[in-house]
Write a structure and sequence with these properties.
79 residues
Length: 79
Amino acid sequence: MPFGKALLGVLALGLIAYALWCFIDGGLDLDDKGNKPKGWAARGAKLISGVLHLALAVSVAALALGRDEAARGSNRTDH
């Protein structure tokens, strides 16, 4: 697949952008959730979502750059 790595790169960029949006939304309370416990919980959930999406973006970027092949190659046996 000639465009596979390019598509993974685009996906990684999109995930990074969404993670950044989650950090901004959770930090600045753009949805106006307020400062009560329910609002803090919603904002905390947004920040956690940002962290998870960022971790997924790093994983996808590693696939796009081919960095997982070296790790897989050392454990692989050819039959």
